[in-house]
Amino acid sequence: MYAIKLRTEHFDEDLSKEIARIANISRKLGLKLRAENRDTTRDEAYVQLGHSASLLRSVLRRLGKIN
Fold it and tell me: Which of 24, 37, 42, 55 sits most deeply, having the most CB atoms within 10 A of its CB?
């Protein structure tokens, strides 16, 4: 996991950008997997999970649900 900064005054904008960034990473991986005609490896799946977990943690922190 890694830190994602979601500013209070620009929360919607920052959140939208992070969602789009993660979606693009996932799209690129999907294209690579299709081109190589293979399934996701365990390591690739964990990286994808890490992106989602990092974003969720940042959102929960910004909403004051966790420290």
Answer: 55
- Which of 27, 24, 14, 9 is CA-nearest to residue 55? 14
Cα(67)–Cα(61) distance, rounded to whole angstroms? 6
Q: Cα separation of 51 and 57, whole Å?
A: 10
Exposed/middle/buried for residue 29 (C-beta within 10 Å: 0-12, 13-18, 19+): middle
Quick check: pTM over 0.90? no
User: Within 1-67, where are the H helices?
Assistant: 11-36, 42-62
**Cα within 13 Å of Cα(36), Cβ side:** 10
